[in-house]
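Researcher: Let's do a round of design. I'm pasting the structure tokens now; please hold your answer until I've finished.
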């Protein structure tokens, strides 16, 4: 696969599990994105809802749909995403991570948590593309997640779509404090900061977001929903172009932005 058909990597804000029943603008944006992308042969998703001390890679050939939440409508628990697994891709992922010194392991039983299947139902609703879930290690910090992504970068030339699934802002303490008509004051400044830093390719600032981003502690009291963005960034390589896709703000505090990471546009050669 050459650079003309090389897949981008993606960071998707999946929001609440209710996104599956009421997708709002993120559903529209993911459907548009699916039409723009070359069809992948497989999808690798680093999810905010699979946490482990070392990288784990789902190797099941028919992963179950995990309903890893409670106190939601029964209709949500009845949803299924019966995408096949891809054991051979899982092995490839494991080899790449091992070569980077990241000590991965295959998990033969892992299914697809809602950080995987909720966005994929909107992106590829037919569930006919094999999916391999990958855990994240939030205690290891952003640099570790970036290294995971960089290790997976060759997959983009092999027809595999690499996705980090989380949320641009994610503070569940604000669940009852805001609404669609009442927005948390930290959300827009955080959205704007991320867009500026990614547009500038400022990886150092992104890695130092706890100190540099406005209201980082409010936007992410814990950062498991933030750190998948580094997997997507890393998979795009050191010279990337980030495109923000505005998917709205859910419940007044969940920024639903999607980021597409492509190779940077080559500089023009002077005549």
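Researcher: That's everything. Go ahead.
Model: Designed sequence:
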């Amino acid at each position: 696969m050459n650079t003309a058909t090389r897949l981008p990597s993606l960071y998707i804000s999946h929001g609440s599990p209710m996104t599956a029943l009421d997708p709002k603008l993120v559903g529209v944006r993911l459907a548009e994105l699916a039409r723009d992308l070359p069809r992948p042969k497989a999808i690798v998703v680093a999810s905010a809802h699979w946490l482990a001390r070392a990288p784990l890679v789902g190797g099941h050939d028919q992963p179950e749909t995990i309903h890893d939440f409670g106190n939601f409508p029964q209709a949500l628990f009845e949803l299924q995403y019966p995408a096949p697994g891809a054991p051979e891709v899982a092995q490839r992922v494991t080899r790449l991570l091992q070569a980077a010194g990241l000590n991965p392991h295959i998990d033969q039983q892992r299914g697809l948590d809602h950080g995987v299947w909720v966005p994929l139902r909107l992106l590829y609703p037919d569930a006919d593309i094999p999916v391999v879930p990958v855990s994240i290690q939030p205690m290891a910090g952003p640099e570790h997640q970036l290294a995971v992504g960089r290790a997976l970068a060759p997959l983009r030339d092999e027809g595999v779509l690499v996705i980090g699934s989380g949320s641009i802002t994610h503070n569940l303490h604000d669940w009852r404090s805001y609404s669609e008509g009442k927005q948390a004051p930290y959300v827009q400044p955080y959205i704007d900061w991320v867009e500026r830093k990614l547009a500038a390719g400022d990886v150092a600032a992104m890695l130092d977001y706890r100190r540099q981003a406005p209201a980082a502690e409010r936007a992410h009291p814990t950062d498991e929903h933030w750190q998948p963005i580094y997997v997507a960034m890393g998979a795009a390589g050191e010279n990337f172009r980030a495109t923000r896709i505005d998917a709205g703000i859910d419940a007044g505090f969940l920024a639903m932005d999607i980021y597409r990471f492509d190779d940077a546009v080559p500089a023009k050669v002077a005549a």
